[in-house]
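=== RUN LOG ===
request id: a7f3
mode: sequence -> structure
chains: 1
length: 207
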Amino acid sequence: MPGTLLPPELLAELTDVAAEILDEVLRQDDRAFSFGDGSRPEDYNVEHSIGATLTGLVIGRKLVCEEALEDLSTGLFLQDIGKLALPPRLVHKEGPLAPDEWDLMMRHPLLGLEFLRDDSIPPGAKAVVRSHHERWDGSGYPSGLVGEEISLFARIAAVADVFDAVTSQRYYAPAMPRRRGAELIRKGAGNAFDPVVVEAFLDAIRR
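=== RESULT ===
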């Protein structure tokens, strides 16, 4: 599978879902959405794609123009597409990953780019797929990018990805309450996450 392109019909279906989520966000204000509701472990991969896209778009509309949100939405929804190239036993493993398994898991951003290497997906969306695990202080992967070396779209995705993940029930970790998840993001400002993105996130989830 690595090195192959996704079938055009599958890619079109996925981008259509991303567009539907964007349409819903644009029709509502922040108070209409419930963040950090989590998901069951068996539903995590699909539900996480939806939850992280929703959260990232609500952050994104505070930081980028509306015309840019379509590319952001596509990138958010496809950010973990590279996991399709990993063994299911790894993606669905109960318990922590062994070091060699973690090394393989950290390849999923670049594997995702291999699926999307044609021109049907815009560069901004690809930047999310590639860099949503990069961290503001350079501690992320796959390239250890620092600060604004990371695209703004990917910095938004980093916050949305982590918040939705930690507030979801995963095979290897229980779900955090929404408030604890938000506090984890707040504490990550300036090290794991772009402080400007964190402030937009906190503003979005305040009621």
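=== NOTES ===
Residues 19 and 182 are 26 Å apart (CA to CA).
Residues 8-205 form a domain with the Hypothetical protein af1432 fold (CATH 1.10.3210.10).
=== END ===
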